[in-house]
Amino acid sequence: MLASVPVVPAAAAEPLQDTQRAAKPHAGWQVTAAAKRAAQRAALPPQWMLPEAVLMEAGSDVRSVASSCGLLSAAQLELTEVDEATVLLKRIANRQYSAVEVIDAYCGRAAIAHQLTNCLTEITFDAARAQAAKLDEHLQRTGELYGPLHGLPISLKDQFDLEGVDSSIGFASLCHKPAERNSVLVDLLQKLGAVIFCKTNVPQTMMSAETNNNIFGRTLNPRNRSLGSGGSSGGEGALLAMKGSIVGFGTDFGGSVRVPALANGLYGLRPTTRRLPYARVSNVLKGFEGIESTIGPLARSVDSLDVVMRAVIDAEPSLFDPKVVERPWITATGSRTLHVAFSLDNGLAHSHPPIRRALRETVSALRAAGHTVTELEAIDHQAASALFSRLAGADGGADLRAFLKPTGEPIVPEAFPFTSTPGSTVYELNSLQTQRDAFRQDFLELWQRSGHRLDGITAAGSGKPFDVILCPVFAHLAKMHLGRPHDAEPITWTMLWSLLDLPACTLPLGEIDPVKDGLEPLPGAAFSPYDQEQWSAYSPEAHKNAPVVLQLVNPRRFREDELLGMVRIVEEAVRKQTTLSSSAA
Q1: In whole angstroms, what is the distance from residue 192 CA to residue 421 CA?
Q2: Per the residue annotation, which of 36, 60, 155, 157 is the catalytic one?
Q3: Pick from 519, 548, 565: which is nearest to 361 by CA?
Q4: In whole angstroms, what is the distance from residue 501 CA to residue 522 CA?
Q5: Which of 256, 304, 343, 424 is catalytic?
């Protein structure tokens, strides 16, 4: 039993003592939140309710509960163990599985996942089953698939509007206000044959690396429920780690896809902004273009990312959202020799021992496979972090407070502290955006110079700028639950690439090894007291089962297809090196 981290509403937490907070909390928001939670509980089908004994004895790592609890059949368990969307779609096309069988299995596993991690917000199982039945009828009647995603279950971060369903996005003021229309992405997915069956939890403000709000409470990490599931797409991360979905869509402003991918050991893609349609998606900071949020998928395989990205982009989303950039999806095939630029530390915090090990091993594997690997030329992470924070808080938190004011809802401690930053004038914002553009120009020139740095290193790669960057996602593993305002530093490795608006994808490389990843002295002088504190917070025991995940970044915008191809190449190099090492042992 894990008594230390019960799934309870976050409303019991003490609000921040923020003098700029809106009205004093009152019973209104609490009544609203309680009604919302009651409706959610009522939507959970009784046949998938876990016995109290199972809930009490589940422990810290709950990933195996779906297999051991007896609520799912052997066939349903086998079906939901599939990690590659291509495999599942082929089985549906070959009529090995019907769409109804698939969605029933995933609804059951999602219900179990929610009871253990608190990952869901909206439960739309009945509508999903009805849609799946129509797909089965279509295939039976015509002999043809409805679309390239025929029968594929897809979960969505709470932001994506579903007609007739709430998009509360962590605010009591948005509860019980169902969307009047679908998001453009939802319409496209359904036209492609995908089945939307649930929405997932987010932090209040959606600006936090910890998923917690006053309505649904905190989402736990299924690998270790003492750890966070990341944010702001944290519900998606926990659901996918529990295999309660095969692919889900989140959004990423400063790391909101990649941080949950890190916390839960997933592949998460942050596309360039305006690559996928954001129209009719509920959000904070709407209309702000200093830093833009972007939609991206999370999954347990590169294959699943490629399948959904290709399907949506082939559907020409620019016809339905004027902001979408028109560029076709070209699935990369074959192998190529890469020039990889790697970076381990950012001058703000030393990466934890398991991350250092994984990066060293990956660099070794790439070199053994014949790829060129060089160190990334220094980037000013401190300047990037400061600029990102000033841009993100340019309105002084006015937008975020506007969501809290109608009900007097308090700020959740983990909410990102943009609610108390001073606002900028239009002139000051223009200046910040000019600095952003200059930062991007400097990086472009750094990339162009990188080819010349290869002279004398390898003749084969001479003059070729790096193809991809290899670096941490965090300097730290998945973090313990905070219950306080979180530090800005941990997300600098993700916000940097958001500031540059570059495609980035996470690469899971197993989990912490208690033998290899023991306690070590800080490698060199601490960058700051914060660095020393975070290094000292690491322990193999506290971070038991924590995933080890790195990040790959394409220095060229809108080339997500190329990036996924490079992820495959790096993954294959690591796999070969691991196989050789195992054989030698």
Answers
A1: 43
A2: 157
A3: 548
A4: 32
A5: 256
Please give the pLDDT value at position 416: 66
Amino acid in the structure at residue 373: V
Of 497, 576, 571, the C-alpha closest to 300 is: 571
Q: What is the pLDDT of residue 19?
A: 30
Q: Catalytic: 167?
A: no
Closest-CA residue to 476 (of 379, 542, 561): 542
Spatial separation of the C-alpha atoms in residues 172 and 164, rounded to whole Å: 17
Q: Which residue in 232, 245, 301, 385 is the catalytic one? A: 232
Distance CA 403, CA 284 (A): 9
The 10s digit of each residue's pLDDT in 525-551 is 999 998 999 999 999 999 999 999 999
- Could you tell me the two tokens for 25? 């909390």
Q: Residue 262 in contact with residue 239, Cβ under 8 Å?
A: no
Round to whole Å and give the CA distance between 545 and 511: 6
Backbone angles phi, psi at 56, to 5 degrees: -70, -30
The CA distance from 15 to 412, in Å, is 6
DSSP letter, residue 466: -
**Which residue ranges in the chain fall short of pLDDT 50?**
1-26, 456-461
**H or E element in which residue 31 lies:** helix 27-43
3-state secondary structure of 141: helix
Alpha-carbon distances of 247 from 121, 135, 304, 457, rounded to whole Å: 17, 19, 7, 41
Instruction: Work out the end-to-end distance of the chain between its first and last CA atoms, rounded to an integer number of angstroms.
Output: 38
- CATH node for 10-584: 3.90.1300.10
Residue 536 is a catalytic residue: no
